[in-house]
Amino acid sequence: MTPQPRPHNRPAGHAIIDAMARSNYEPPADAAALFAQIKAAHDTLRQLREPLREMAVREMRENGATIGDLARLTGYDDEKYRRMGREAGIERLRPPTRGRLTSD
User: Fold this and answer.
1) pLDDT (tens digit, 9 = 90+) per residue, 14-67?
2) Rounded CA gap, 43 and 31, in Å?
3) How far, in Å, CA of 83 to CA of 91, rounded?
């Protein structure tokens, strides 16, 4: 007997939706340790979000750091710092190379 094809986004008929939402899963020690490290890293990043924004804006405004400099030093994407600078009203060093050009 071959299984009947079913739509990709639908659970099998025997699946219980409530059971999929919660479980009694207890990870083994190595998985629990890794998951705890990941959660701690996310918590740390959340705590550093505002100090990073303040420092990045200060460095762009007072010391001439570019979005590329900040991205290279932190590992974040250029766009993160581009948005921070835009929100802080920091003047662009050059006009954008993509997108619609507007006359001022």
Assistant:
1) 555 655 567 889 999 999 999 999 999 999 999 999 999 999 999 999 999 999
2) 18
3) 12
pTM more than 0.70: no
DSSP string over the chain: -PPPP--TTS--TT--HHHHH-------HHHHHHHHHHHHHHHHHHHHHHHHHHHHHHHHHHH---HHHHHHHH---HHHHHHHHHHTTPPPSS--SSS-----
Q: What integer pLDDT is reported at residue 9 of this predicted model?
A: 64
Number of residues that make up the chain: 104
Q: Which two tokens stand for residue 103?
A: 């006359």
Distance CA 35, CA 12 (A): 29
Q: How many Cα atoms within 13 Å fall on the side-chain side of residue 15?
A: 8
Using an 8 Å Cβ cutoff, are 86 and 93 in contact? Answer: no
